[in-house]
From TrEMBL:
Residues 7-238 form the ABC transporter domain. GO terms for molecular function: ABC-type putrescine transporter activity; ATP binding; ATP hydrolysis activity. It comes from Paenibacillus methanolicus. It comes from the Bacteria. The complex is composed of two ATP-binding proteins (PotA), two transmembrane proteins (PotB and PotC) and a solute-binding protein (PotD). InterPro entries: AAA+_ATPase, ABC_SmlMolc_Importer, ABC_transporter-like_ATP-bd, ABC_transporter-like_CS, Mo/tungstate-bd_C_term_dom, P-loop_NTPase, PotA-like, PotA_ATP-bd. Part of the ABC transporter complex PotABCD involved in spermidine/putrescine import. Responsible for energy coupling to the transport system. Its EC number is 7.6.2.11. PROSITE patterns: ABC_TRANSPORTER_1, ABC_TRANSPORTER_2. Belongs to the ABC transporter superfamily. Spermidine/putrescine importer (TC 3.A.1.11.1) family. This is Spermidine/putrescine import ATP-binding protein PotA. Pfam families: ABC_tran (PF00005), TOBE_2 (PF08402).
Amino acid sequence: MSDQTIIRFEHVTKRYDQDAPVLDNVSFEIERGKFYTLLGPSGCGKTTILRLIAGFIEPSQGNIYFNGRIINNVPANKRQVNTVFQDYALFPHLNVFENVAFGLRVKKVSKSEIQKKVTEALRFVNLAGYENREITEMSGGQRQRVAIARAIVNEPEIILLDEPLSALDLKLRTEMQYELRELQRRLGITFIFVTHDQEEALAMSDEIFVLNQGRIQQSGTPIDIYDEPINRFVADFIGESNIVPARMKADYVVEFAGRTFECVDKGLQPNEAVEIVIRPEDLEITASGKGKMQVRVDSQLFRGVHYEIKGIDDAGNAWLVHSTKRADVGAQIGLDFDPEAIHVMRFGETEEEFDKRLESYEGSETGGGGHGH
Protein backbone atom coordinates (compact mmCIF):
# COMPACT_ATOMS: atom_id res chain seq x y z
CA MET A 1 0.00 0.00 0.00
CA SER A 2 1.50 3.36 -1.03
CA ASP A 3 1.56 6.50 1.11
CA GLN A 4 -1.00 8.00 -1.28
CA THR A 5 -3.59 5.27 -0.67
CA ILE A 6 -6.70 6.68 1.01
CA ILE A 7 -9.16 3.77 0.56
CA ARG A 8 -8.32 0.08 0.41
CA PHE A 9 -10.73 -2.82 -0.03
CA GLU A 10 -9.29 -6.15 1.12
CA HIS A 11 -11.26 -9.23 -0.03
CA VAL A 12 -14.58 -7.46 0.54
CA THR A 13 -17.83 -9.36 -0.01
CA LYS A 14 -21.33 -7.98 0.47
CA ARG A 15 -24.43 -10.14 0.45
CA TYR A 16 -27.98 -9.62 1.65
CA ASP A 17 -29.48 -12.59 3.53
CA GLN A 18 -28.63 -15.83 1.71
CA ASP A 19 -28.67 -14.32 -1.75
CA ALA A 20 -25.69 -14.47 -4.10
CA PRO A 21 -23.14 -11.77 -3.20
CA VAL A 22 -23.70 -8.32 -4.68
CA LEU A 23 -19.96 -7.79 -4.27
CA ASP A 24 -17.72 -10.85 -4.47
CA ASN A 25 -14.24 -10.88 -2.87
CA VAL A 26 -13.20 -7.47 -4.21
CA SER A 27 -9.79 -5.91 -3.53
CA PHE A 28 -8.53 -2.55 -4.81
CA GLU A 29 -6.90 0.72 -3.74
CA ILE A 30 -7.91 4.36 -4.23
CA GLU A 31 -5.23 7.07 -4.12
CA ARG A 32 -5.85 10.57 -2.84
CA GLY A 33 -6.36 13.47 -5.22
CA LYS A 34 -7.56 11.48 -8.24
CA PHE A 35 -10.83 11.15 -10.14
CA TYR A 36 -12.03 7.53 -10.11
CA THR A 37 -15.02 6.06 -11.91
CA LEU A 38 -16.88 2.86 -11.04
CA LEU A 39 -18.34 1.74 -14.36
CA GLY A 40 -20.65 -1.14 -15.18
CA PRO A 41 -24.22 -2.23 -15.96
CA SER A 42 -27.07 -2.08 -13.47
CA GLY A 43 -26.64 -4.53 -10.60
CA CYS A 44 -22.88 -4.97 -11.09
CA GLY A 45 -21.97 -3.74 -7.58
CA LYS A 46 -20.74 -0.20 -8.24
CA THR A 47 -23.30 1.57 -6.01
CA THR A 48 -22.67 -1.05 -3.32
CA ILE A 49 -18.99 -0.03 -3.27
CA LEU A 50 -20.02 3.60 -2.89
CA ARG A 51 -22.38 2.77 -0.01
CA LEU A 52 -19.67 0.72 1.72
CA ILE A 53 -17.22 3.63 1.50
CA ALA A 54 -19.87 6.06 2.75
CA GLY A 55 -20.72 3.82 5.72
CA PHE A 56 -24.37 3.31 4.79
CA ILE A 57 -23.82 -0.47 4.83
CA GLU A 58 -21.17 -2.81 6.27
CA PRO A 59 -19.25 -5.58 4.46
CA SER A 60 -20.28 -9.20 5.02
CA GLN A 61 -16.63 -10.25 4.79
CA GLY A 62 -13.27 -8.54 4.37
CA ASN A 63 -11.99 -5.16 5.51
CA ILE A 64 -12.24 -1.57 4.30
CA TYR A 65 -9.37 0.75 5.23
CA PHE A 66 -9.43 4.55 5.33
CA ASN A 67 -5.95 6.08 5.65
CA GLY A 68 -4.68 2.70 6.85
CA ARG A 69 -7.36 2.22 9.54
CA ILE A 70 -10.19 -0.35 9.35
CA ILE A 71 -13.53 1.47 9.14
CA ASN A 72 -15.98 -1.45 8.76
CA ASN A 73 -18.01 -0.36 11.79
CA VAL A 74 -17.37 3.40 11.70
CA PRO A 75 -20.75 5.16 11.26
CA ALA A 76 -21.34 7.35 8.21
CA ASN A 77 -21.34 10.62 10.17
CA LYS A 78 -17.86 9.86 11.51
CA ARG A 79 -16.25 9.43 8.09
CA GLN A 80 -14.49 12.18 6.11
CA VAL A 81 -16.74 11.39 3.15
CA ASN A 82 -19.65 13.24 1.54
CA THR A 83 -22.08 11.88 -1.06
CA VAL A 84 -23.79 13.63 -3.97
CA PHE A 85 -26.87 11.58 -4.81
CA GLN A 86 -28.58 11.07 -8.15
CA ASP A 87 -31.54 13.26 -7.13
CA TYR A 88 -29.20 15.68 -5.25
CA ALA A 89 -31.34 15.27 -2.05
CA LEU A 90 -31.68 19.06 -1.59
CA PHE A 91 -34.21 20.57 0.81
CA PRO A 92 -36.86 22.37 -1.33
CA HIS A 93 -38.01 24.53 1.58
CA LEU A 94 -34.50 25.97 2.14
CA ASN A 95 -32.73 28.46 -0.09
CA VAL A 96 -29.28 27.85 -1.62
CA PHE A 97 -27.35 29.25 1.36
CA GLU A 98 -29.28 27.21 3.92
CA ASN A 99 -28.97 24.01 1.88
CA VAL A 100 -25.19 24.36 1.77
CA ALA A 101 -25.01 25.44 5.42
CA PHE A 102 -27.18 22.59 6.73
CA GLY A 103 -24.37 20.19 7.69
CA LEU A 104 -22.37 22.96 9.34
CA ARG A 105 -25.36 24.00 11.46
CA VAL A 106 -25.81 20.37 12.58
CA LYS A 107 -22.16 20.43 13.69
CA LYS A 108 -22.85 23.70 15.57
CA VAL A 109 -20.21 25.65 13.63
CA SER A 110 -20.16 29.37 14.49
CA LYS A 111 -22.28 31.77 12.43
CA SER A 112 -19.26 33.68 11.11
CA GLU A 113 -17.51 30.45 10.10
CA ILE A 114 -20.65 29.20 8.33
CA GLN A 115 -20.87 32.46 6.39
CA LYS A 116 -17.24 32.16 5.33
CA LYS A 117 -17.35 28.48 4.37
CA VAL A 118 -20.66 28.64 2.47
CA THR A 119 -19.55 31.72 0.52
CA GLU A 120 -16.31 30.01 -0.43
CA ALA A 121 -18.05 26.75 -1.45
CA LEU A 122 -20.54 28.60 -3.66
CA ARG A 123 -17.70 30.53 -5.28
CA PHE A 124 -15.94 27.25 -6.03
CA VAL A 125 -18.97 25.94 -7.95
CA ASN A 126 -19.62 29.26 -9.74
CA LEU A 127 -22.77 30.10 -7.76
CA ALA A 128 -21.58 33.26 -6.01
CA GLY A 129 -24.54 35.61 -5.68
CA TYR A 130 -27.10 32.78 -5.63
CA GLU A 131 -27.23 32.54 -1.83
CA ASN A 132 -30.86 33.66 -1.51
CA ARG A 133 -32.18 31.83 -4.57
CA GLU A 134 -34.90 29.22 -3.92
CA ILE A 135 -34.04 25.65 -4.92
CA THR A 136 -37.28 25.41 -6.92
CA GLU A 137 -36.03 28.30 -9.10
CA MET A 138 -32.75 26.56 -10.00
CA SER A 139 -32.00 24.61 -13.19
CA GLY A 140 -30.84 20.99 -13.09
CA GLY A 141 -27.20 21.95 -13.53
CA GLN A 142 -27.43 24.63 -10.83
CA ARG A 143 -29.03 22.19 -8.39
CA GLN A 144 -26.21 19.78 -8.98
CA ARG A 145 -23.68 22.50 -8.19
CA VAL A 146 -25.57 23.29 -4.97
CA ALA A 147 -25.35 19.61 -4.00
CA ILE A 148 -21.61 19.62 -4.70
CA ALA A 149 -21.14 22.83 -2.70
CA ARG A 150 -22.98 21.19 0.22
CA ALA A 151 -20.60 18.23 -0.08
CA ILE A 152 -17.35 20.24 -0.19
CA VAL A 153 -18.29 22.73 2.53
CA ASN A 154 -17.58 20.04 5.15
CA GLU A 155 -14.04 19.65 3.76
CA PRO A 156 -14.24 15.87 3.20
CA GLU A 157 -11.27 13.84 2.01
CA ILE A 158 -13.48 12.00 -0.50
CA ILE A 159 -16.57 13.02 -2.47
CA LEU A 160 -18.78 10.17 -3.70
CA LEU A 161 -21.00 10.89 -6.71
CA ASP A 162 -23.81 8.41 -7.42
CA GLU A 163 -24.81 8.93 -11.08
CA PRO A 164 -25.32 12.68 -10.52
CA LEU A 165 -25.57 13.50 -14.25
CA SER A 166 -28.14 10.88 -15.27
CA ALA A 167 -31.16 13.20 -14.95
CA LEU A 168 -29.67 15.95 -17.13
CA ASP A 169 -30.20 16.44 -20.85
CA LEU A 170 -27.29 15.60 -23.18
CA LYS A 171 -25.97 19.15 -23.67
CA LEU A 172 -26.05 20.01 -19.97
CA ARG A 173 -24.63 16.61 -19.09
CA THR A 174 -21.60 17.26 -21.33
CA GLU A 175 -21.10 20.71 -19.80
CA MET A 176 -21.26 19.27 -16.28
CA GLN A 177 -18.65 16.64 -17.16
CA TYR A 178 -16.18 19.44 -17.86
CA GLU A 179 -17.25 21.34 -14.73
CA LEU A 180 -16.94 18.31 -12.42
CA ARG A 181 -13.50 17.40 -13.79
CA GLU A 182 -12.24 20.96 -13.42
CA LEU A 183 -13.74 21.23 -9.92
CA GLN A 184 -11.96 18.06 -8.83
CA ARG A 185 -8.64 19.41 -10.13
CA ARG A 186 -9.11 22.71 -8.30
CA LEU A 187 -10.12 21.04 -5.03
CA GLY A 188 -7.40 18.41 -5.26
CA ILE A 189 -9.47 15.86 -3.35
CA THR A 190 -10.54 12.34 -4.30
CA PHE A 191 -13.71 11.97 -6.37
CA ILE A 192 -15.32 8.53 -6.78
CA PHE A 193 -17.95 8.68 -9.50
CA VAL A 194 -20.53 5.99 -10.35
CA THR A 195 -21.94 5.71 -13.87
CA HIS A 196 -23.07 3.20 -16.47
CA ASP A 197 -22.15 5.63 -19.27
CA GLN A 198 -18.91 4.53 -20.96
CA GLU A 199 -18.23 7.83 -22.75
CA GLU A 200 -18.68 9.71 -19.49
CA ALA A 201 -16.18 7.43 -17.73
CA LEU A 202 -13.61 7.73 -20.52
CA ALA A 203 -13.90 11.52 -20.63
CA MET A 204 -13.66 12.29 -16.91
CA SER A 205 -11.51 9.70 -15.15
CA ASP A 206 -7.92 9.35 -14.04
CA GLU A 207 -8.70 5.68 -13.44
CA ILE A 208 -11.67 3.42 -14.19
CA PHE A 209 -12.84 0.27 -12.42
CA VAL A 210 -15.00 -1.82 -14.78
CA LEU A 211 -17.38 -4.07 -12.82
CA ASN A 212 -19.63 -6.95 -13.79
CA GLN A 213 -21.53 -9.43 -11.60
CA GLY A 214 -19.98 -8.19 -8.37
CA ARG A 215 -16.35 -8.33 -9.49
CA ILE A 216 -13.84 -5.89 -10.91
CA GLN A 217 -13.12 -7.06 -14.44
CA GLN A 218 -10.36 -4.54 -15.14
CA SER A 219 -8.91 -1.31 -13.77
CA GLY A 220 -6.67 1.27 -15.39
CA THR A 221 -6.53 4.61 -17.16
CA PRO A 222 -9.17 5.32 -19.81
CA ILE A 223 -6.57 4.67 -22.53
CA ASP A 224 -5.56 1.36 -20.91
CA ILE A 225 -9.16 0.21 -20.67
CA TYR A 226 -10.05 1.26 -24.22
CA ASP A 227 -6.91 0.07 -25.99
CA GLU A 228 -6.17 -3.04 -23.91
CA PRO A 229 -9.49 -4.64 -22.83
CA ILE A 230 -8.84 -7.77 -20.80
CA ASN A 231 -11.84 -9.79 -21.96
CA ARG A 232 -14.92 -9.79 -24.17
CA PHE A 233 -17.10 -8.07 -21.56
CA VAL A 234 -14.76 -5.08 -21.20
CA ALA A 235 -14.13 -4.83 -24.96
CA ASP A 236 -17.86 -4.93 -25.67
CA PHE A 237 -18.89 -2.64 -22.82
CA ILE A 238 -16.29 0.09 -23.39
CA GLY A 239 -16.99 1.70 -26.74
CA GLU A 240 -17.84 -0.19 -29.91
CA SER A 241 -15.74 -3.19 -30.91
CA ASN A 242 -15.23 -5.81 -33.55
CA ILE A 243 -14.65 -9.07 -31.62
CA VAL A 244 -13.73 -12.01 -33.82
CA PRO A 245 -12.64 -15.60 -33.02
CA ALA A 246 -8.97 -16.15 -33.85
CA ARG A 247 -6.01 -18.46 -33.37
CA MET A 248 -2.53 -17.42 -32.29
CA LYS A 249 -0.09 -18.97 -34.78
CA ALA A 250 3.15 -17.69 -33.23
CA ASP A 251 4.50 -14.61 -31.47
CA TYR A 252 3.30 -11.56 -33.42
CA VAL A 253 1.20 -13.67 -35.83
CA VAL A 254 -2.54 -14.29 -35.47
CA GLU A 255 -5.08 -15.97 -37.75
CA PHE A 256 -8.67 -14.82 -38.22
CA ALA A 257 -11.17 -14.39 -41.07
CA GLY A 258 -9.34 -17.17 -42.92
CA ARG A 259 -6.00 -15.32 -43.12
CA THR A 260 -2.90 -14.68 -41.01
CA PHE A 261 -1.96 -11.17 -39.89
CA GLU A 262 0.93 -9.51 -38.12
CA CYS A 263 0.10 -8.24 -34.64
CA VAL A 264 2.01 -6.89 -31.62
CA ASP A 265 1.09 -9.62 -29.13
CA LYS A 266 3.24 -12.47 -27.91
CA GLY A 267 3.45 -14.85 -24.97
CA LEU A 268 0.56 -17.09 -26.03
CA GLN A 269 0.70 -20.75 -27.00
CA PRO A 270 1.05 -21.71 -30.71
CA ASN A 271 -2.41 -22.51 -32.13
CA GLU A 272 -4.11 -21.23 -28.95
CA ALA A 273 -7.74 -20.22 -29.53
CA VAL A 274 -8.17 -16.52 -28.73
CA GLU A 275 -10.36 -13.56 -29.64
CA ILE A 276 -9.17 -10.39 -31.33
CA VAL A 277 -10.54 -6.87 -30.98
CA ILE A 278 -10.29 -4.14 -33.61
CA ARG A 279 -12.01 -0.82 -32.92
CA PRO A 280 -14.25 0.50 -35.76
CA GLU A 281 -12.22 3.69 -36.12
CA ASP A 282 -9.03 1.66 -36.70
CA LEU A 283 -10.40 0.15 -39.92
CA GLU A 284 -9.71 2.05 -43.14
CA ILE A 285 -11.84 1.58 -46.25
CA THR A 286 -9.95 0.77 -49.46
CA ALA A 287 -10.97 -0.18 -52.97
CA SER A 288 -12.30 -3.67 -53.62
CA GLY A 289 -9.45 -6.17 -53.93
CA LYS A 290 -7.08 -4.02 -51.88
CA GLY A 291 -6.42 -3.89 -48.13
CA LYS A 292 -5.96 -6.80 -45.72
CA MET A 293 -9.49 -8.25 -46.05
CA GLN A 294 -12.61 -7.98 -48.16
CA VAL A 295 -16.16 -7.41 -46.91
CA ARG A 296 -19.60 -6.96 -48.44
CA VAL A 297 -21.42 -3.84 -47.20
CA ASP A 298 -24.63 -4.76 -45.37
CA SER A 299 -25.73 -1.32 -44.14
CA GLN A 300 -24.61 2.28 -43.88
CA LEU A 301 -25.74 5.09 -41.57
CA PHE A 302 -24.56 8.71 -41.55
CA ARG A 303 -23.63 9.74 -37.98
CA GLY A 304 -22.63 13.36 -38.61
CA VAL A 305 -18.87 13.13 -38.13
CA HIS A 306 -18.56 9.70 -39.78
CA TYR A 307 -20.38 6.95 -41.65
CA GLU A 308 -21.20 3.81 -39.69
CA ILE A 309 -20.77 0.91 -42.07
CA LYS A 310 -21.52 -2.75 -41.36
CA GLY A 311 -20.07 -5.51 -43.53
CA ILE A 312 -19.56 -9.28 -43.66
CA ASP A 313 -16.28 -10.99 -44.58
CA ASP A 314 -15.91 -14.25 -46.51
CA ALA A 315 -15.72 -16.23 -43.24
CA GLY A 316 -19.07 -14.82 -42.07
CA ASN A 317 -17.65 -12.39 -39.47
CA ALA A 318 -19.49 -9.08 -39.03
CA TRP A 319 -17.42 -5.89 -39.12
CA LEU A 320 -18.34 -2.38 -37.97
CA VAL A 321 -16.41 0.49 -39.57
CA HIS A 322 -16.39 4.19 -38.67
CA SER A 323 -15.13 6.13 -41.66
CA THR A 324 -15.39 9.54 -43.32
CA LYS A 325 -15.73 7.59 -46.60
CA ARG A 326 -19.11 6.25 -47.62
CA ALA A 327 -19.74 2.79 -49.11
CA ASP A 328 -22.82 1.64 -50.98
CA VAL A 329 -24.91 -1.20 -49.58
CA GLY A 330 -24.11 -4.40 -51.47
CA ALA A 331 -20.70 -3.17 -52.60
CA GLN A 332 -17.50 -5.15 -52.03
CA ILE A 333 -14.84 -3.09 -50.24
CA GLY A 334 -11.41 -3.67 -48.79
CA LEU A 335 -10.44 -3.00 -45.18
CA ASP A 336 -6.95 -2.07 -44.06
CA PHE A 337 -5.52 -1.81 -40.53
CA ASP A 338 -2.17 -1.64 -38.76
CA PRO A 339 -0.75 -4.52 -36.68
CA GLU A 340 -1.11 -2.26 -33.61
CA ALA A 341 -4.87 -2.10 -34.19
CA ILE A 342 -5.23 -5.83 -33.42
CA HIS A 343 -5.61 -6.59 -29.72
CA VAL A 344 -5.48 -10.28 -28.76
CA MET A 345 -7.55 -11.49 -25.78
CA ARG A 346 -7.01 -14.84 -24.09
CA PHE A 347 -10.08 -16.71 -22.80
CA GLY A 348 -10.45 -16.60 -19.00
CA GLU A 349 -7.34 -14.52 -18.43
CA THR A 350 -7.10 -12.66 -15.11
CA GLU A 351 -6.00 -9.05 -14.95
CA GLU A 352 -2.72 -10.10 -13.26
CA GLU A 353 -1.97 -12.62 -16.03
CA PHE A 354 -2.85 -10.04 -18.66
CA ASP A 355 -0.52 -7.45 -17.10
CA LYS A 356 2.38 -9.92 -17.12
CA ARG A 357 1.76 -10.78 -20.75
CA LEU A 358 1.51 -7.10 -21.65
CA GLU A 359 4.83 -6.38 -19.92
CA SER A 360 6.46 -9.18 -21.93
CA TYR A 361 6.03 -7.30 -25.20
CA GLU A 362 5.85 -3.65 -24.14
CA GLY A 363 9.00 -1.89 -25.17
CA SER A 364 10.05 -4.70 -27.51
CA GLU A 365 11.12 -3.77 -31.03
CA THR A 366 8.01 -5.32 -32.59
CA GLY A 367 5.61 -4.23 -29.86
CA GLY A 368 6.66 -0.60 -30.00
CA GLY A 369 5.45 0.02 -26.47
CA GLY A 370 1.97 -1.50 -26.68
CA HIS A 371 -1.23 -0.68 -28.54
CA GLY A 372 -0.97 3.06 -28.97
CA HIS A 373 -3.75 3.85 -31.42
